[in-house]
Amino acid sequence: MLLSVLDQSPIVSGRTPAESIRETLALAAHCDALGYHRYWVSEHHNSPSAAGAAPEILLGALAATTSRIRLGAAGIMLPHYASLKVAEQFRTLEAIAPGRIDLGLGRAPGSDQLTAHALNPHAAHAADAFPAQLRDVMAWVSGAPLVANHPFGAIVANPAGPTQPEVWMLGSSTYGAQVAAYFGLPYCYAWFFADGLGAEEALDAYRASYRPSERHPRPHVALCVFALAAESEAEAHRLIGPRDVWTTERNRGRYVALPSPEEAARYPFTEQERARQLSRRERDPVGTGEQVLRRLSEIATSHAADEIAVVTAAHDAAARRRSYSLLAEANRAVRLAAE
């Protein structure tokens, strides 16, 4: 199975957000060595839970410290920015790491509405113009001409070069799926947002209305799924305790730093909240490397996904790296057995 990584640079209790960014750099190098296909970083603003506010800058550092793995944003929240600037940033990244850059685009704010307004006072109107913005970014990134009579038709996004970033559409609804289909783009569905609820509808809409493009003559689906592997199932369930707290707090309308397993063990869940988390654990890919890979394979097969992007949050950075190691080892063993 084709495995990739989404790193949200999680903020954890007892460490600073700056340390989270440095942990992302270390994890990217680790996953590069393990053979993962892509490494994507996310964009969040004014968040006590995720430190990655500037993926375009972080990707420059990742390009300098990795050698093989594809690197990308999942994603750039386009309504915050001017299309030309986004295209220039990712053409620059492509010049740094030719043939390894992905530009994942989304329409969601990645923040609260006040923060979105601070980033772009015209963000509410920009969201309505998202398809036109996407069209312009695609043209500038690829070096193709803008649409006829475009007021900026004479402008070129530099640095030009022989390769170009691969543009992706990200989403968790049928809207993103339909936009991806219209422009002939690969589509990544954020399965982890709501445990896959709505995935079937979005992917059906994507495939049914897909318009082939030169770079992507066929639809291409990735699913971004939360998973965590450990040496034993019991250890994996201990390490997942902090995420139980984090999702419970999110459901209460609060975003917090990821607590430690010890802090999570003392969290005052209600009976209903505890039951909800136990039910989630039965569905989530959590356990040994083999167990996690088996569950991810089931999800990929049931939705005919071409690849899985794994997002893992753990309080201990070493445990998070070990989770990706165990999953890669399990995947490698399956491939060798099939040869």
What does it look like?
With 339 residues, this protein is of the alpha/beta class. The chain has 14 helices and 10 strands. The protein has an 8-stranded parallel beta barrel, surrounded by 5 helices. Strands 8-9 form a two-stranded parallel ribbon. Helix 3 links the parallel strand 3 and strand 4. Helix 2 runs parallel beside helix 3 and helix 3 packs parallel to helix 6. The chain starts with a strand and ends with a helix. 47% of the residues are buried. The mean pLDDT is 95.
Jot down its keywords.
339 residues; alpha/beta; eight-stranded parallel β-barrel; two-stranded parallel sheet
Number of helices: 14
Spatial shape:
globular
Question: Uncertain segments of ≥5 residues (pLDDT<50)?
Answer: none
β-strand percent reads 5-15%
Structural class: alpha/beta
> Main sheet?
8 strands, parallel, barrel
Please tell me the overall pLDDT.
Answer: 95
> What is Rg?
20 Å
Helix content: 40-55%
- Compressed to H and E, one letter per element, the order equals EHEHEHEHHHEHEHEEHHHHEHEH
Distance between the termini: 14 Å
| Strand order, largest beta sheet | 1-2-3-4-5-6-7-10
Total number of strands: 10
